[in-house]
What we know:
Elements: H1 3-13, H2 19-51, H3 56-77, H4 80-104
Amino acid sequence: MNKDEILKKSREENKGCDFVEGAVLARANALSLGVGMIVCGLLSVLAAIFRGVPDYSAWTVMWAIQASIFLFKYYKLRRRHELALGLFYGALDIFFFVFYLHSLLGAA
């Protein structure tokens, strides 16, 4: 495959892609995950203050989102650190899910 064929194939693959929009979307996703973490923390603190028990359901959802993002990135990019973070966030998800079930079932 020569240079012109490679360039032609690249142009066809990237046809209709807006790289600026992709960069903005990536930044927006990162920002929204940070905001999600802050909101989860706030919900947990408020639940602990008013109900006496932290809210684990919000954390369960947040860690599931984080795990799925990093595991998908690993699937596409094959970077080991993406897999490590995905597995770590998945473990946190399971950890908080167990606490959520524990509080939901009323076990003391």
